[in-house]
Amino acid sequence: MCGIMGFAGGGEAAPVILDGLKRLEYRGYDSAGIAVYDGGRFCVVKRKGRLSVLEGELQKAPVPGSIGIGHTRWATHGEPSDANSHPHLGSMSRIAIAHNGIVENYKALREYLAGKGVAFSSDTDSEVVAQLAEHYYSGNLLETVAKVINAIEGSFALEFMCLDEPDKIIAVKKYNPLIVGIASGATYVASDVPAILRHTRQVVYLADREIAVLTRDGAAFYNMDLEPIQKRPETISWSMDSAEKGGYEHFMYKEIMEQPRVIEDTLKSAMPGGSNEPVLDALDALRFDRIKIVACGSAYNAGSVGRYAFESLCRIPTEADLASEFRYRDALIDENTLVILVSQSGETADTIAATLEAKAKGAKTLAIVNVVGSTIAKEADYTIYTMAGPEIAVATTKAFSAQLILLYMLAIRLAHRLGRIGREEAGAMVAEIGTLPGHVRGIFGEVEKIQHYAATCFNSKSIFFIGRNIDYAIAMEGSLKLKEISYIHSEAYAGGELKHGTISLIEDNTLVVAISCCDRLAPKTESNVEQVISRGAKVLYITSGGIAFGSDKVFTLREPRVGELFAPSLSVVLLQLFSYYVAANKGCDIDKPRNLAKSVTVE
Ligand code: F6R
């Protein structure tokens, strides 16, 4: 995910573009840049790092000009660096582009252009768009854009400028969002409404493969045959704040809602032709007899779910370990151990130290990371990426779901390689993972029910989460999510452990959240529920089974039935929504809970 912004108007372009990019930083923040036309040339400034780095640069050396484009990046191809930042210029510096999306056939196009003598200056897929446009350009930018669009495969929101037609920006999209803003004496193009809301509320939403030509005098629209089409502006009534969150009140909620897409993209990345496939293929050659999954917080909880998948499918001894413990324990690992490091940010200090410790001991290291080019991604021997895009809310949701998908896919591949499951069984499991996005969308239909129940729980002093085996692993994530955003004390227990001490804490109306999505263990968890009810507890029962307790103390949330290994992907969505609504009822600062940081770069 990246953010793009363009401005054609009367005043200075750079401050308008920069302000727009700030509102789009939620779409990516590893590097940023702008290109402004200034009397016969493009002034391009691009910097690795947050937008503030670019802003500082532009304060020192302002770029004049009244038309330009900008970009805030979330790296997918090529690590975050000045050179890989957008906008990209063709090698003759005649055409400038900014791109959000992925050019899937970029390797073939790059080879073709290199064969024609074109020299590339970045590692990105996007640069082929600039080079291709220059290669095709023969005096008409609109025709060139149409030709480029016909040549590239994948997804895109693109903006183009050309030195020979300096009064216009051409914009086009497929699968990625793009809007055009219209004001008197100026036009704007952006990935999202908040970028332009300060300037205009008149917005045209581009459909796939529609082309917009922007000048300071207005915007014209064309189809791919370059026939003019009529597009009517819509008036945006949202407030600035709600616009940035896509109309939702919090980033956390927006990110919960993005999970079907994130699961689909992450699954696709691990399938033939996907961006993670080359690394997964390389992993097939590794030999090891033990697996350690090392991480912190929610990433550790994802690892705990993954542990069940590896042990049950591959029959390889697997442990999940807290990075902060692992790094100081002189852990028993060697060259026959695969250490899997899981991290959204790729910058968590303890997980970085654990990576280095594992390498020093000769173990093979594989990172599952969300942020491209982060320290853990670079330090590990192998890295695969979750396709969650930037996560803004401190409490992780969509990155967690993406981590589960890659852990499942690794376990299935390994089990197949080891001959533990056949091709058909592996295929059936992957197909079942493919059903998860639809099921998550189904769960979104239950939101009101969850919201109502959460409204009865927000005064709880303490909430316990129980489950067995893989349900226990996901209970730990439910408990962490609740405590971090609602500040309600909470613990997760293996259901069978309750009677060894914790049950003494159960009083009248103590809430126990019980997760029961493993058929073989359902009778055991049901007994635990009976035990706590008889001591006065009320229970939120999350199940994919059929049991209905005859007690009005139990509120049941049903989740769609999938194989027990994949059920955590559904349970977690119910648990996230429950935590969200409890915290919302308490009026907590959901996106920025007290004392927490998104990336824990210190011990
Ligand atoms: C909880 C949460 C944290 C992180 C943990 C590890 O919602 O977000 O527990 O999971 O700090 O962070 P990463 O994944 O960046 O290594």
Overall domain count: 3
Low-confidence stretches: none
Average pLDDT reading: 94
Task: Report strand %.
Answer: 15-25%
**The named CATH superfamily of the largest domain:** Aminohydrolase, N-terminal nucleophile (Ntn) domain
Shape: globular
**Strand order, sheet with most strands:** 3-2-4-1-10-9-11-15
Q: Based on helices, strands and strand pairing, what is the structural class?
A: alpha/beta
Indicate the CATH topology of the largest domain.
Answer: Glutamine Phosphoribosylpyrophosphate, subunit 1, domain 1
Total beta-strand segments: 25
The number of helices is 19
Helix proportion range: 25-40%
| Spatial gap, N to C terminus | 30 Å
**Major β-sheet, in short?**
8 strands, antiparallel
C-alpha-based Rg, rounded = 26 Å
What does the model show?
The structure is a single chain. The protein is of the alpha/beta class and 603 residues long. It folds into 3 domains: 3-236, Aminohydrolase, N-terminal nucleophile (Ntn) domain (Glutamine Phosphoribosylpyrophosphate, subunit 1, domain 1), CATH 3.60.20.10; 248-434, Rossmann fold (3-Layer(aba) Sandwich), CATH 3.40.50.10490; 447-586, Glucose-6-phosphate isomerase like protein, domain 1 (Rossmann fold, 3-Layer(aba) Sandwich), CATH 3.40.50.10490. The protein is built from 19 helices and 25 strands. The strands form 4 sheets. It has an 8-stranded antiparallel beta sheet, covered by helices on one side. The mean pLDDT is 94. Residues 296-299, 343-345, 348, 351, 395-396, 480, 484, 599-600 line the site of fructose -6-phosphate. Fructose -6-phosphate binds next to α10 and α17.
